[in-house]
């Protein structure tokens, strides 16, 4: 979960095949639908209450839940996995999440009480009543290629946070590594981070390691053009 502020937005016109799903529940997370090479990928999935919004986004992209070939989860927070159980049984695809966050999404473990300046307790309580997807969970590690996406381990917001970069589409799906604020990106702050210093290190690492990308697609706030430049500009 990340905080989202009401600031006039500058939203990128995303490339063909990439659909932004602007969810409306609570902190208004983003999901994205990517249709590339006849494969459909859902990146993150909003809160449970965003089910209809996600279904509408899939319809806008010209697909249905049953067409999804894979789900990429940037991290375990409920506002990024919430609709998955509600899209089943039509949704029948593996869910990819970093190995450090995978036990939570799989339902094998609850988020720790003490993480993230007390907000971890809220996540743990919410997870106690969250329906998790009965789908195959695939553990991701840094450097994995999943279809056209390359996984970059970007810890800080959660220990297993991942950014996914699709080089052919020139899009980076940032999750809660950074959020869109007007025409800028801002690294996720200390309040919602497991390790705020690691967030900054992860931003630097992604800027250094990833190929140039035109579009930055954060987990909250508007997708932005000139994505790699804006992410670099977010650093102090």
Automatic annotation (TrEMBL):
Cross-referenced Gene3D superfamilies:
Ribonuclease Z/Hydroxyacylglutathione hydrolase-like
* Stretches assigned to the Metallo-beta-lactamase domain: 28-220
Looking up InterPro entries in the UniProt record yields: Metallo-B-lactamas, NDM-1-like, RibonucZ/Hydroxyglut_hydro
Which Pfam families has this protein been placed in? Lactamase_B
Name-wise, this protein is: Metallo-beta-lactamase domain-containing protein
The species this protein belongs to is Halobacterium salinarum (strain ATCC 700922 / JCM 11081 / NRC-1) (Halobacterium halobium)
The taxonomy runs: Archaea, Methanobacteriati, Methanobacteriota, Stenosarchaea group, Halobacteria
